[in-house]
Amino acid sequence: MMTYNVHSCEGLDGKTSPDRIARVIARQNADVVALQEIDVGRDRSGNIDQAETIARKLGMTFHFQSSLSFEDGKYGNAILSRYPLKMIRVDALPRLKGHRFFEPRGALWVEIDVNGIKVNLITSHLSLWPAERLLQAEALLGPDWTGNAACQGAVVLCGDFNADPRSTVCKRIGCTLRDAQMLVESHKPKSTWFAGYPFSRIDHFFVSPDIEVMNIAVPSTELDRIASDHLPLIVDLKVQSAASGVNPIEPPAGRR
Asked: Fewer Cβ within 10 Å of end Cβ, the chain: N or C?
């Protein structure tokens, strides 16, 4: 599983290329991908649907959530999957009153059917402003999202949270879910931003207790470092079946 802020598919070389983003994803053989900063139909990125284009090139299905609408298109988050997807919720996240110039934020919740096991995946891109970011994190932990009665069993919350692990936001989320980068023995947590010289860990996976994190990767080849201003974050997960007590969702060799 991968989370990746693709910067509207604009690389550090100034070129906009969904094809290049698709190549980054394909190299990692990710089965499920959460994308942030996706353009749909916008002039600045060639008027294409970036979510559809990337999903088609990878042979995946997808859902898109629009956080911002413009005359020439939309901008938001997407989830791509090789497994069957069911849209559960798509909605805006709360904003601070009196701060209408802050960028609106939203979240996307899907249910993924992995060989008969249901996995709830929620992705978002939180505010740049600390107080608003905390407000949005609290909402994601509340009854509309991870605290919803329908959000049971395996739960994954991921995305660009614009917050490092020491932040109030990550500490608050960590009271309910677990930081995936802290769950692999001998793994040293890796930063994902800025792609050229990564020094900040603001992209995250948080998982429920019944999910085992097997491996973490942050690829940093020349392609990865130029395709976006973020590096992708990849986790290999196992989900324990409550009925059988086994771990049936380990991906096939080479897949994530």
From this structure: C
